[in-house]
């Protein structure tokens, strides 16, 4: 199971780097979200993948009866998913507003603040 997750994380990272190297800002945002999800999956897999042993303590016990999955990476990933969704919503809104203003999503054409030449023309 861990090998499958490791291969999937590798494919996700490769795809996200490919998307982030594109000149289109929207593809960059999708690559950023994809690499964030790959990191979340890596952290989740590091916390022991045991679907038959949830991190629950039976009522009346002080400790779990058997070895269970670590709850800390699961809580960390859940928090990262929520933060990532907020970042994605903000970035998507920013990209939409940029497209409305400039009429393009190509990062090479978004150079309004840079001077055009030495003489300022």
Automatic annotation (TrEMBL):
UniProt-annotated location(s): Cell membrane
GO cellular component: plasma membrane
Regions that span the bilayer: 25-46, 75-96
Main location: membrane
Membrane-topology descriptor: Multi-pass membrane protein
InterPro entries (UniProt xref): CPA3_antiporter_subunitC, NUOK/Mnh_C1-like
Keyword set, alphabetical order: Cell membrane, Membrane, Transmembrane, Transmembrane helix
Annotated Gene3D superfamilies: 1.10.287.3510
Keyword Transmembrane helix found: yes
Presence of the UniProt keyword Cell membrane in the record: yes
Family classification: Belongs to the CPA3 antiporters (TC 2.A.63) subunit C family.
Record-linked PANTHER family: ANTIPORTER SUBUNIT MNHC2-RELATED
Protein name: Na+/H+ antiporter subunit C
Natural source organism: Rhodosalinus sediminis
């Amino acid at each position: 199971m861990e090998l499958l997750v490791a291969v999937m994380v590798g494919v996700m990272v490769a795809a996200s780097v490919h998307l982030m190297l594109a000149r289109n800002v929207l593809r960059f945002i999708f690559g950023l979200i994809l690499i964030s999800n790959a990191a979340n999956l890596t952290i989740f897999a590091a916390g022991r993948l045991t679907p038959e042993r949830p991190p629950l303590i039976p009522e009346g016990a002080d400790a779990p009866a058997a070895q269970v999955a670590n709850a800390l990476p699961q809580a960390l990933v859940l928090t990262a998913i929520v933060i990532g969704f907020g970042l994605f919503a903000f970035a998507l809104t920013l990209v939409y507003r940029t497209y409305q203003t400039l009429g393009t999503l190509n990062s090479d054409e978004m150079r309004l603040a840079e001077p055009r030449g030495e003489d300022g023309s």
